[in-house]
Amino acid sequence: MRNKPVISIIIICGIVGLVSCEKDLPTHLEYKDYSFSSADENGGAWQPILIDQGAAITIEAPEDISSDSYMAEILTLKESMAQINTSQKEALAYWGNNAVVRWNEITLELIAKYNLIPGPNEDGSYTLPNPANPNGPPGFPFAHPPYACRVLAYLSVAQFDGLISAWHHKYVYNREAPYKQDTSISFAYEANDIPSYPSDGAVLARVSKRVLSAMFPLEAEYLQKKENEHLESLLLSGGNVPSDVTAGAAIGDSIAQIALARAANDGMKNAQAPKAVSDSIKAAAFARFGWQWDNLEIPARPVGLTPLFGKVMMWNVANVEDVRPVAPPALDSDTYLEDVAILKEHADNMTEEKRRIANFWQDGLGTYTPPGHWNRFANEFMVESKMNPLRSARTLAYMNMAIMDAGISCWDAKYYYHYPRPIQTIEGFKTIAGTPNFPSYTSGHSAFSAAASEVLAYVFPEKASLVRGWAEEAAMSRVYGGIHWTFDATAGTDQGREVAGFTINVAKGDGAD
Amino acid sequence: MTRHLIFSIRYIRKMHFILNFLALMFLMVPFARGQTPNDALMMPSKNICILLNYDLGQFDRYWEGDYLRKNETIATVDRNTILPMAAVGILDELNFYIGLPHVKTSSSEINGGRFEGVKGFQDLMLALKFKALDKSLGVGQLSLFTSIGYSTPASNYLSDYLPYSLGFGAPELSLRGIARYQLTNGFYVRGMIAHLWRGYTEVERDYYYNNGSYYTALMDVPNAWNIEAVLGKWFLNNTLKFELNYAGLKSTSGDNIRAYNAAQPTNKVKFDRLGVSLQYYSPSIKGLGVVGYYTNVVNGLNTAKFSNVGLGLTYQFEFIKNNYEEQDAQ
To answer: Which among A402, A408, A405 has a CA at the least distance from the CA of A307?
Structure first.
């Protein structure tokens, strides 16, 4: 029986060891509060996207800092800061000094939550999400890559324009932050010299809540809670008084309305074409080229994903046909047959490295999609470069416009050429990634990634070769996954780079460089 | 061995994740017969029992949350497991176990996904079983056992490729209590309860959704409770054993599979499984045994409705004595 104590020791050590090793996994980008690398005092003169200039949105002039009302605001602020509770302290730490990152992460999370493809009904039919009946089933929206890139573009552009307007008024009125007015107030973050009226944080909170509530109608309550928490944090940080916040929120309201008006008429509501239109698009491609892509799911989906996304209004390209790539190789050409051999070779010789690449960039159903993946990189770079909120919003606005334009161009090619996927034309072919419900040529991952990487290379020149390498790896990941031809990937990469060039040219002229 | 276990336990991390039901297939099904960490049999000191088991699991429906659904994108999924395992009698009251399953998965040919299956070695399993009590009680014999097990992935398989993944891709520490009461006429009942501590599985993407965003390649595989209840009887002069069994597993945390979406290792898994098994020890070839079984998952949460059939061979011999004979021969 001498073994008995040994067993007990093992058991006790095991339980203690397991419990003590539990730790939390990261649910957002964790960064230390930082001192902004620039204040961008002339940011109010930068060229916005949706409005003519920052001054186009007007707000009331603030009360003087010597006024009774301002003094009362400071007094109330100090009282509430003295009574701060634990959850409010956690909120301060969470929102940090660059809420552009947090609202972007909230967006990525909603995309991942809603990026679920409707399954078949019992009778083999499919029901599509309907904005007129958002509860469904299926719930609205299906946040697929075209939907996701559009959400991100409108959010980022509206944030950027709102902050340009805020910067304009900040340096017109030059009202210092409460913690500068009263040294007994300690600021929750690193001090800066950016005036506090109107509050840039309040612009972000209000415009983000409004744009996202329109795009994710079932999340209105959750987003309102987030906005309230953010607005409260702005006060409790010691950085804003209520009148700063009210003025910032007013700018947020104005610019959100302008952004959503554009969104309502950009053509997206027609993108998920009815079956008759979808069939005629397919027939036109077959008549033109002698091939057509077919959905091979069981039961087959009657319509591919957003056949008319290629008709959606672009941000910085005048005509989508100007950037349409050349036709893919015919199905009896040597180029095509060489690609069949390449895909078979990858499938037969799948290595751990190829598998890792296919999975790392997959960003498929249930995730934040490829546009989301690039936003995550941008967030990390923005924090690393200690960007202020205005410059962060600029980075995301140009990147997400380029990503959306690349997506529109890619979808134009997909449904114009209607090219089959590898599983359709290679007998017995199997994949390690899910084959999406839209034509093959060109690759969306390739176009999205190339466009994103070009804008990031422009904003962060020191990262240029890194991000371009990532974009090429993302493109090849689809070939390793068995769901794209190599020419889908290379043409998609070229297309994304070309399309991004239009956006980068606009960025170079906006006054920020 | 003890030192290895303590080391492993101390440094165990919640490291990586997949389908608990897959783990179940290899942990519960083959090990539930023969001399295993789960049962109430002990190897005598200086004896080894070798088990070679083949298991075929199949499903064409699974529970998405508590909704039992079909999915023609994966159609029918096959799971073939070959498990070699050894049980070593260190002392009459203390046995050591080691096993390494090889698993092959695939979809039936006609499916909408055209997904490639996978194959390879799954998890190395080590366990110690200790007989704590063996005494006459009333008209029968009561025996109590405890076992502690540790398993860890034996190859770089991807746990985040459900439903084809080989396993859940994380280390697991299990602690079991087993009780058996056997009558002189050969009837017996056996109960087992276990807690399974599972670590993290490392996947090949560094973002996933688990009721919220996770910016990491680590997925938390939920811990679980595992219970078994068995009614059995020995026949033919204690050479044939027949068992009816129930096995249940319940994760203590985790998320649901989302609508028409792939399962992932973070899912909360529950199931109830019923089975029968027969084990026969050959009186003519000393030490040889044959085991066969069938099990079916009858109720579940975020798990496949698996049916499994298995066939195994066991062979038991005295290893110390054999070694001496070999030395003598030299």
So the answer is: A408
Strand partners, B324: none
Helix, strand or coil, per DSSP, at residue B279: strand
Nearest to B203 by CA among B247, B264, B155, B160: B160
Report the candidate in A230, A228, A244 with the shortest Cα–Cα distance to residue A180: A244
d(CA A155, CA A215): 10
Distance from A76 to chain B by nearest Cα, in Å?
35
Helix (H, G, I), strand (E, B) or coil at B174: strand
Q: Are the Cβ atoms of B259 and A297 closer than 8 angstroms? A: no
Structural contact between residues A107 and A204, judged by C-beta atoms closer than 8 angstroms? no
Give yes or no for a contact between B29 and B293, defined as CB atoms under 8 angstroms apart: yes
Whether the ω angle into residue A371 lies within 30 degrees of 0, i.e. cis, is no
State the angle between helix axes of A99-114 and A220-236 in degrees (0 to 180), rounded to the nearest 10: 160
Does any CB of chain B come closer than 8 Å to the CB of residue A113? yes
pLDDT for B35: 56
C-alpha closest to that of B43 among B325, B319, B322, B327: B319
What does the pLDDT read at residue A455?
98
* Chain A environment of B206 (Cβ under 8 Å): 360
CB contact under 8 A, B2 and A10: yes
Average pLDDT of span A481-499: 98
Residue indicated by tokens 């062979």: B315
Give pLDDT, residue B37.
74
Which segments of B138-252 are extended strands (E)? Answer: 140-153, 172-183, 187-198, 200-202, 208-209, 213-214, 218-220, 224-235, 240-251
Q: Which residues of chain B have pLDDT under 70?
A: 1-35, 109-110, 321-330
**B28 or A369: which leads in pLDDT:** A369
- In chain A, the percentage of residues whose pLDDT exceeds 70 is 96
Question: Which residue has tokens 């079984």?
Answer: B293
Least CB–CB distance from A118: residue in B69, B71, B260:
B260
One-letter amino acid at A96 equals G
Residues in chain B with CB shorter than 8 Å from the CB of A477 are: none
Contacts of B40 (CB under 8 A, 6+ apart): B143, B145, B178, B179, B180, B188, B190
Distance (Å, whole) CA A125 – CA A273: 16
Distance separating alpha carbons of residues B27 and B226, to the nearest angstrom: 11
- With cut-offs at 50, 70 and 90, classify the pLDDT of residue A284: very high
Stated as kind and residue range, the H or E segment containing B329 is: helix B319-329
Q: What is the pLDDT of residue B324?
A: 44
Total residue count of chain A as it appears in this document:
513
Query: How many other β-carbons are positioned within 10 Å of the β-carbon of residue B326?
Result: 8
The ipTM is 0.94
Query: Using CA atoms, how far apart are residues A377 and A357, in angstroms rounded to an integer?
Result: 17
Q: Indicate the residue of B5, B173, B214 with minimum beta-carbon distance to A27.
A: B214
Q: What span, in angstroms and rounded, lies between the C-alpha atoms of A296 and A300?
A: 6
Token reading at A487: 């020419």
B296 Cβ contact list (under 8 Å, min separation 6): B273, B274, B275, B306, B307, B308
